[in-house]
Amino acid sequence: MKAKIMGLLRDEEGQGMVEYGLIIGLISVVAITAIVAIGPKVADYFNDANTDMPAVD
Hints:
Layout: H1 2-10, H2 15-52
């Protein structure tokens, strides 16, 4: 029983998948933060461009 538990503790199979998951999670958090921070500025640029254009009838 002790050998089986020690074998499970030394087994590193699947570790890479967890690391990839953590990296993807971190990239997602950074991307969402950037979008939230930049989003209002981009919306202002589009609103300014919209108000500066003459209306077409």
